[in-house]
């Protein structure tokens, strides 16, 4: 009797998980992290997300990019916007922008508040801890695995354009700061 | 000899698949190690994963395939068989991604035995 292993299963099959199961698991994760060290919640969530990034990268490239790697910054960010977001949330609702003054910082802005912050409420007056650091960790893991060393942080979008009403969740902006070697490599490849 | 090299240039998996006729023992690993630099140079330049034959040592060829997460698959062989080797690499790549879906994978740093069977099966199919 041959046992079926994980290698016999199809990789291209897309399965969906209900949002409730995700919220259930995520709330337990946050409670666990708070018990460990409440002040370092964001850092712990990021560290949890990093190993996921490499796996997402391999899956996306295998399934949707027919095994062609991305080697430029712009293409990689487009991969995150067009492939990673629909894979994680089934919606393509984010905008990618480059920072005005510093050319090594890119921003991914959300259009709607994301799943991690949807039901997470912070004690009034407490520091601005953003549970979307989990997603920031995933993005960072993805970029590091793809050889684009970067630091990704999730911050709340408090700036003027869309005023958030009281009680509505704030939207997040993911700041991606690439290391110098990535920019140097881009500049060198543009010369050819 | 077939080697899978992961982060920090640490070999994650090794197998001799009968692609080198004469017996040169540990020289195989040296050959692959020497070709690593060339692979690292060529990988960021091309969006293809299969890098064909990257290096030659006496009469042995080294072929390489780099996945999106920078896992390098390298094979020492003495006969040119580009299509067969490319299909072999693609098959092993799919099995690697399946193994990666295990959340405990990195911690073990070793592929399980079922993976070994799959690699041997792919070798029999594509690398005569």
From TrEMBL, chain A:
GO terms for biological process: endoplasmic reticulum to Golgi vesicle-mediated transport. InterPro entries: NO_sig/Golgi_transp_ligand-bd, TRAPP-I_su5, TRAPP_component. It is found in: Endoplasmic reticulum; Golgi apparatus, cis-Golgi network. Its main location: endoplasmic reticulum. Keywords: Endoplasmic reticulum, ER-Golgi transport, Golgi apparatus, Transport. It holds the Pfam family TRAPP. One of its GO terms (cellular component) is endoplasmic reticulum. The keyword Transport applies. Part of the multisubunit TRAPP (transport protein particle) complex. PANTHER family: 41-2 PROTEIN ANTIGEN-RELATED (PTHR20902), TRAFFICKING PROTEIN PARTICLE COMPLEX SUBUNIT 5 (PTHR20902:SF0). Belongs to the TRAPP small subunits family. BET3 subfamily. This is Trafficking protein particle complex subunit.
UniProtKB/TrEMBL annotation, chain B:
Pfam families: Sedlin_N (PF04628). One of its GO terms (cellular component) is cytoplasm. CDD domains: TRAPPC2_sedlin. It comes from the Eukaryota. InterPro entries: Longin-like_dom_sf (IPR011012), Sedlin (IPR006722). PANTHER family: TRAFFICKING PROTEIN PARTICLE COMPLEX SUBUNIT 2. This is Trafficking protein particle complex subunit. It comes from Stentor coeruleus.
């Amino acid at each position: 009797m041959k046992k079926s292993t994980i290698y016999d299963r199809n990789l291209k099959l897309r399965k969906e998980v209900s949002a409730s199961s995700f919220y259930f698991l995520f709330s337990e994760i946050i409670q666990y992290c708070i018990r460990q060290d409440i002040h370092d919640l964001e850092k712990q969530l990021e560290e949890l997300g990093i190993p996921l990034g490499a796996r997402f990268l391999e899956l996306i490239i295998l399934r949707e990019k027919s095994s062609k790697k991305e080697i430029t910054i712009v293409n990689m960010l487009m991969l995150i916007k067009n492939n990673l977001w629909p894979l994680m949330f089934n919606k393509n609702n984010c905008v990618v922008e480059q920072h005005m003054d510093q050319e090594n910082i890119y921003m991914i802005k959300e259009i709607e508040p994301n799943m991690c912050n949807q039901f997470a409420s912070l004690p009034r007056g407490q520091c601005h801890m953003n549970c979307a650091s989990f997603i920031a960790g995933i993005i960072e893991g993805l970029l590091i695995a793809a050889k684009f060393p970067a630091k990704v942080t999730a911050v709340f979008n408090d700036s003027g354009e869309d005023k958030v009403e009281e009680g509505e969740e704030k939207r997040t902006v993911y700041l991606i700061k690439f290391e110098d070697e990535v920019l140097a490599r881009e500049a060198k490849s543009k010369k050819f | 000899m077939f080697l899978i090299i992961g982060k920090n240039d640490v070999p994650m998996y090794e197998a001799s698949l009968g692609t080198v006729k004469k017996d040169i023992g540990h020289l195989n690993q040296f050959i692959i190690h020497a070709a690593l630099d060339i692979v690292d140079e060529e990988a960021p330049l091309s969006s293809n994963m299969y890098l064909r034959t990257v290096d030659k040592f006496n009469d042995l060829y080294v072929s390489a395939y780099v996945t999106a997460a920078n896992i390098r698959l390298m094979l020492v062989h003495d006969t040119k068989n580009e299509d067969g080797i490319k299909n072999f690499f693609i098959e092993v790549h799919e099995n690697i991604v399946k193994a990666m879906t295990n959340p405990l994978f990195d911690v073990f740093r070793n592929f399980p035995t079922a993976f070994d069977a799959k690699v041997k099966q792919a070798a029999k199919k594509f690398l005569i």
